[in-house]
Each structure stands twice: as structure tokens, then as C-alpha cells.
Amino acid sequence: MKAPDFDYLRPSSLDAALAMLAEHDGEAMPLAGGQSLMPMMNFRVAAPEALIDLADLTELRGITVDAGTVRIGAMTRYAELMSDATVQAHIPLIGMALPHIAHDAVRNRGTIGGSLALADPAAEMPALMLALDASIEVTGPDATRMIKADDFFLGMFETALDGELITAIHVPVATPAQRFGFHELTQRHGDYALAGVAIAQTDDSYRAAFFGVADRATRVPELEAALKRQDDMKVVLTYLDQIDFTDDLKANHTTRQRLAGVALTRTLKGMTA
Amino acid sequence: MSRSIDIKLRVNGENVSATVPARLNLVDFLREELCLTGSHVGCEHGVCGACTLTVDGDTVRGCLMLAAQANGKEITTIEGLADSGQSTALQAAFTKRNALQCGFCTPGMLASALGYVNAGGAADRDAIRQHISGNYCRCTGYQSIVDAICDVIEETRT
Lengths: 273, 158
Description:
The structure holds two protein chains of two kinds.
Chain A: E1 7-9, H1 14-23, E2 28-31, H2 37-42, E3 50-53, E4 63-66, E5 69-73, H3 78-83, H4 85-90, H5 92-97, H6 104-107, H7 112-118, H8 124-131, E6 135-139, E7 144-148, H9 149-152, E8 153-155, E9 158-159, E10 165-172, E11 178-185, E12 195-202, E13 205-211, E14 218-219, H10 221-228, H11 233-238, H12 253-269
Chain B: E1 4-11, E2 14-21, H1 26-33, E3 52-55, E4 58-61, E5 74-76, H2 78-83, H3 88-96, H4 106-118, H5 125-131, H6 143-156
Parallel strand pairs in B: 1-5
Antiparallel strand pairs in B: 1-2, 3-4, 3-5
Helix pairs in contact in B: 3-6
């Protein structure tokens, strides 16, 4: 299908974009890469009155490192993340995951900020942010604030954004004490995952974020504690019960729980620096 | 009114100016306004790859980009890739290997394959399959498409 009609606005600055967002009072949606929003509009799941194209906002671009943190502009495209030396050197987990995120043609347009703002429960990027203990920098008409990834994703397509735009993502630089792993199970390479997990291990502590399994990317504290205690894998997997697994046409909750366990087991076997 | 947008872009090397509805996809603009019907419209949600074309040299989904977003961009469709000779070797290999039957996926498949070849991709069947996993073909079973892409890589690098 085709998208319903809307106003197309193309601000040239962050301030102008925020003013447009406020003026439309919740009826406008920011357009980043559009690789998820456009399909949703074509399906008429989303029908915003206006699209505010963020393409010209130079404030949302660039990747810098400062004081042990990599700051990634929200409009950084997946293809740019893949080829960026800073990201490759300091955030290996993103490098592991990117080849699994959709396909070349989609990665050339899709952005990190767009994926986080949409909060698709099956998308990889929210889970990566949870595993990496990233912070999301968001700017509203009056102020800029930082939101921990753990506090950002509130539900299916629901975030802590309140009339604000994501301006950047702050990810801690990987340390020698860390190991990372990523695995997802899909029907076809590049499809949304039926179940997947991203793991960051620091010494004996784990942050394991599952995606594609529930209404949002999810960590399970009891499961992470069991990993830390080096419990038997059979015991670790029982803590997956804590997740409210999705039932849909692609997989029921029993299948999803099993696949999440497979993804976790495989990821833990292949953790690398 | 921001529901119709003035755009200026280059399509296959020619300057184009138009006023387009905000909701018009890039691929629909190319097909219906410019009569460049080589790019096909399949799923309209970015899954099938039939509308794959290049924008400023990068492959993109023509159905997931608005014509309005293409303002100031350089678009190359399969017509442009064929006329400029960029896809000649791939087209010949597709013919030789029977890498198409109905041909619906072929323009998108060629654009994706060209992206792989131009990026220096290896003649590695698994890597090629992974790269073209975003392009559905319902006729060939992909084997012959992978054969054709391998042929071009091996021919051009030996």
C-alpha cells in the first residue's frame, strides 16, 4: 500500500525541528532514515499528520570520543557505523551486530537514533544499548537530558521521549576486561529476529539483553546473576521464564523461549574481546 | 503547502525538476512521472528488494525513500546502470547462467549485485548469498544468480 497523505517539513536546525514538533503537539513524527517508519506508514499502522525530516540537522551527525565515552550522533547511518574506525575500535559489539541488521540497501539509510526512537521490540539496536549500558542524549524545547538505556524503552514502540528528539547516543569505550557476544535467529538473514541476544561481559558480570522476544528489548536480572554465579546452563535457562514471550504468526511463546535459550547458549560460547 | 514539494535532482545523469506530493515514494516518482519502469515495485515495505536503486552511489530501497527526500541527490536506476555500461558484465553473466526467469527481481538483483562487486566483495558463495538475502527471487532458487555474480568477480579479478 501507499502511505496516507501528510505534510513534509524539512527544518534546517535542531531548534526549528523542536519548534515544529511542539507546534504539531504529538501529531508529527520525526523522519530519520525512514526504514521502519515508511513501511509502517505504507501499512497504515502509522499515519502522522506531518513528517519532520531530520536530514539537514548537522547537530545530529558525527562520531567523537571523549573521556572514555563514544558519542554517536543520532542521524548516523548503519553503513557509517560499519565503516567508522572509532566504532570498530571502541564498540566491538556494534560491529558484531551490524551485519545482521537488515540488508545493505537498508543499512545505507537506517539510523541509530531512528531505531532507538521507534523502539521496535524486534530491532537489534535497543538491545545493544541495554547490553552496552549506553545513555541516550535527548533534547527538548527547554533542555537536554541523558536517559540510561535501562530507563528509555517503556514498551512496544514506547520510549521515555517527551516532545524531545534523540540528539546522540553515548556508549562507554570497551575495556580490556570486557568480552562481547551477539546472536540472533531469523527466518532469513537480515530479517527481524524471532529471538536474539546481545551480551557484554565485564570480568564475571554480565549484561544480557534479549530482543524479538517480548514487547521491548529486555534484560533479566536473575538470569544475569545466575551467569555471574556460573550456574549450570540448565539452571540459567530456567530464568527465561521471567520474560513475557510474544505469541505471533511467526512463533508462539514456547518456541520463542526455546530460541532465546539457543541464542543465549550460542552467544556465551563465542564471547570475544 | 507542504503536501506538495518542489524537488531538483539528477536521474541517470540528467537534471530533473518536479513538484511532487509529499507521500510519493521515490520509486513511484521514477516509474510514473519519469517513465523509468525498470525499477519494480513489489512489497512496498522494504522486504523484497525489487525496487533497489542507487542514490549518490549507495544502494537503497526505492519504496522506503520519499521523492521529497531525493532533493539534491543523484539517482541511478537500472536504465542508467545499463546505459552507462556499469551493469553490462553482470547482465551478460545473468543471461549466460540463466539467472532470471520472469525477470521481476532482476533490476533490483543487478543493483544489489553491483553494490557487492563494486565494494570488492569476494567470490564467496556464502557471502554473496548473505548480500543478496534482501532480494527475493521466486524463480531461480538463487543458485544461478550466485553463479553469475561469482563469474563476474572471477573474470574481472583474474
